[in-house]
Specification:
Helix content is 4%, strand content 48%. By secondary structure, it is mostly beta strands. β22 and β23 form a beta hairpin.
């Protein structure tokens, strides 16, 4: 079975799981413990008030598709999840405020369909108003929550909701849920599933700007609509639109400044990309035409970070059944900065990119899962460094319980360089003669981790990368390491020194044959590695060995 088929099949299975009726987990949930990762803190969302015959207080939480982002206020952050009910339809939202230094929960707000007249209220955006109160903007489906035992809801038609929350206490100051019979209120597409009908919502003064695609005939003809609505979801002024081809992926749209938006079109036959810069009314500001020298097929704008556009590209021209995958970075002037070929191993799903600010390097966080035998899997959270034309595994984090695993749900870089990693925790069980996923044993967790612990930068008193430095991954390491040699260091001798300066190991290397090395029999501690090329040029790096 090809990789693309495997991934597609697994996505279908996971999707069906999401719409199966939830029950209690077979095994009680326990927060994972890492073998080789030491987060500064690790918290898991739990709400005792949700306990029922289908909820253990953990498994109703679900991560939204990239929106909204965490809201940072002083040394605290606010984040929102959507809640699933017993029938696994989105049933409401959960907002939590935590201390960023300790992970301590300050308050939480839960709202499900039973509190809103059997209409769900899914978080769409979080803002602060002029009084520093929290503004929660939600989308409420026109229809009500399904009451049949097997029913689920995928209603693309929604209306805007608004709730004002005291940021210090979490208490609701005011709440507005629209009347689904009021024809003066604008109808908007849902925004839970990113690759379906999807809207982008932005604050604009006292109003809210909604930009979304609308199909207007029986063909694949869409228009891109920009609509301004007030706090009750009623249209303000005119509604603007431009033609839009749905096949170009509406996900390829982002806001790059307060008043400037960008949507990207790709043309497979000519291997070209068009950057369309528009204002809030969809008037053209600038167009960049880019002719590429690699196959342009399915280019998905995965994220916009540090004024750079990060795409995932599937080259179906080369192989339509198992297309080569790349991560491609452009700046806003249309310059291609990186084209890294991605070779994810067996069942590595949901990779999340991070353009790390301290080094301006691209990393990829992914779940790794490989079946070793009957009832035996190898799970890890893998971190890769993406460089031109290739990728390097720098860290593989294992869990003490081999049946536990995580999906990486979100990545945020903090001002000091630490990383907030959001993960979905899961469990495998042996049931009815099969080793299978316990889909009801799941929870959403957040960890604060240093860049050194993740392997994003070497463990050193000097965190700056220098031209003649060896980069070692993973670092710290309890096993094999990869060494990235600088230009000019190709073939020669590796010398390993302990913290006392004594030479403890020496061996030959040729980076054209392998950059993968085993250093066996070493005690825990800090070591200096020196690479000496046959030309006499040398480079050094530090490595930390752990148990």
């Amino acid at each position: 079975m090809s990789k693309i088929i495997q991934i597609t099949f697994l996505w279908v299975i996971i999707t069906l799981e999401c719409y199966a009726q939830l029950n209690l987990p077979v095994e009680p949930f326990e927060q994972i413990k890492w073998k080789n990762l030491n987060p500064k803190w690790h918290v898991t969302e739990y709400d005792e008030s949700m306990l029922s015959d289908s909820c253990d207080g953990y498994n109703y939480f679900f991560n939204l598709a990239n929106d909204p982002q965490r809201l940072y206020v002083n040394k605290e952050y606010i984040f929102a999840y959507y809640l699933r009910g017993k029938r696994t339809s989105p049933s409401g939202h959960y907002i939590v405020k935590r201390n960023m230094e300790t992970g301590e929960k300050k308050w939480s707000v839960r709202e499900d369909h039973t509190m809103t007249g059997w209409r769900t209220n899914i978080t769409r955006a979080l803002f602060l108003d002029e009084n520093s109160n929290l503004i929660h903007i939600g989308l409420v489906p026109i229809s009500t929550y399904p009451k049949s035992p097997s029913g689920f809801q995928l209603d693309p038609q929604t209306q805007l909701s608004k709730k004002t929350i005291d940021i210090n206490t979490g208490n609701t100051i005011s709440s507005y849920i629209p009347d689904n019979t009021d024809t003066t209120i604008s109808i908007l597409p849902q925004a839970v599933y990113k690759y379906g009908p999807y809207n982008h919502l932005y604050k604009e003064g006292e109003n809210y700007r909604c930009i979304y695609p609308v199909k207007y005939n029986d063909k694949l003809d869409f228009k891109l609509v920009s609509q301004l609505v007030d706090s009750e979801g009623r249209r303000v002024g005119s509604t603007d639109s431009i033609p839009f081809y749905e096949g170009q992926r509406f996900v390829n749209f982002t806001r790059i400044s307060e008043d400037t938006f960008l949507y990207i079109e790709t043309f497979k036959l000519s291997d070209s990309i068009v950057f369309n810069f528009v204002d809030k009314n969809l008037n053209t500001l600038k167009i960049l035409n880019i002719k590429e020298d690699f196959p342009i097929n399915d280019m998905l704008l995965f994220s916009f970070q540090r004024d750079k556009l990060i795409f995932t590209s599937f080259d179906t021209k080369t192989n339509p059944f198992e297309p080569p995958i790349s991560h491609v970075i452009y700046d806003l002037n249309g310059n291609r900065l990186l084209n890294a070929k991605v070779n994810l191993e067996y069942l590595e799903l949901y990779p999340k990119p991070l353009l790390y600010g301290k080094t301006d390097e691209l990393f990829l966080f992914s779940r790794y899962a490989k079946k070793q035998g009957v009832g035996d899997w190898d799970f890890s959270m893998n971190v890769y460094k993406l460089i031109q034309d290739t990728m390097i595994l720098i860290s593989a984090f294992k869990v003490e319980d081999k049946d536990r695993f995580v999906f990486v749900a979100s990545i945020d870089e903090l001002p000091d360089g630490d990383i907030l990693v959001g993960v979905e925790e899961n469990n495998m069980i042996y049931k009815n003669g099969n080793y299978q996923h316990d889909g009801n044993a799941r929870a959403m967790s957040t960890m604060r981790v240093s860049p050194e612990a993740l392997g994003l930068i070497p463990v050193s008193t000097n965190t700056e990368f220098i031209a003649d430095q060896l980069n070692l991954y993973p670092n710290p390491s309890s096993g094999p390491v990869r060494i990235v040699f600088p230009n000019g260091i190709n073939e020669g001798k590796l010398e390993l020194f302990n913290s006392s300066g004594a030479l403890v190991m020496s061996r030959d290397f040729d980076k054209h044959l392998s950059n993968f090395f085993e250093f066996e029999g070493l005690s825990s501690g800090m070591y200096l590695i020196k690479a000496i090329d046959k030309t006499g040029k040398s480079a050094v790096g530090k490595m930390v060995v752990t148990e």
